[in-house]
Specification:
Elongation Factor Tu (Ef-tu), domain 3; Rossmann fold; 2 domains; 6-stranded parallel sheet; 5 helices; 13 strands
């Protein structure tokens, strides 16, 4: 495990409410697997405050670490939103096993909102390392403008012929000409979009209530627990 002091180098807007925070690597031996998480310490009223975040960066993106967050009314979130390049932070990690399997396998990612963070890390890693895996991503959001990494996901699917992305929007007012899915991720949609669901490992990532609901959907489809990995993003229900 590594730990080091660093500073904010860049804040990258992803949507109106979601931003990515980048930090230069200030220590040797900083390694991690795509999909893992790390701890970030910042100052709030002069006191250290710590929170864990999944990597949205990939190990193939050199020189910095990145996490991505939806800005809420929580104090930690509000202080993050006010960070400027040069502000101090301490990073410690990596942790977690929400990572790619050790051997190539057919995968299904079921994600909602900010839960796309570790999935982006994994998809970017596979693209950068020129690995073609058979992956279906069902990504649920309320509206079109809330889709984080929207353009990059399109580029990633173009680079990897084995990657298929299905956007699922629940807002009744959708952009004219919307060709994606409507509603929520459920058993009917999984059967429709992933007909070979019994052959895949499933990765569930999003707010806790969504992850629990998705677990119930997979249980109804008789997907065994050992073929499911979960990453719950607390504070977003």
């Amino acid at each position: 495990m590594w730990q080091f002091d660093t500073m904010v180098s860049e804040v990258v807007p992803r949507t109106q409410q979601i931003s990515s925070f980048r930090f230069p690597i200030k220590s040797d031996g900083v390694v991690y697997s795509p999909g893992q998480f790390f701890f970030v310490t910042i100052k709030i009223n002069g006191q250290n405050a710590i929170h864990h975040f999944s990597f949205s960066s990939s190990p193939t993106e050199k020189g910095y670490l990145e996490f991505t967050k939806r800005i809420t009314t929580h104090e930690f979130s509000q202080v993050l939103a006010a960070l400027q390049p040069g502000d101090w932070a301490n990073l410690r990690g990596p942790m977690g096993n929400f990572t790619l399997p050790s051997q190539k396998h057919k995968l299904a990612f079921l994600s909602g909102g900010i839960g796309i963070t570790p999935i982006r890390s994994m998809l970017r890693f596979l693209a950068d390392s020129q690995q073609t895996w058979d992956i279906v991503l069902l990504y649920g959001n309320s509206g079109y403008e809330e889709i984080a990494f929207r353009d990059e996901l399109t580029e990633l699917s173009a680079q990897n012929p084995g990657l298929r992305i299905e956007h699922v929007l629940s807002d009744p007012e959708l952009p004219p000409g919307w060709q994606g899915r409507r509603g929520h991720i459920n058993t009917d949609l999984i059967r429709l979009t992933i007909p070979d669901f019994g052959d895949r490992f499933f990765y569930l990532s999003g707010p806790p209530k969504m992850v629990t609901s998705l677990e119930d959907q997979l249980s109804a489809l008789e997907i065994p627990p050992e073929k499911i990995r979960r990453d719950s993003f607390t504070g977003y229900d």
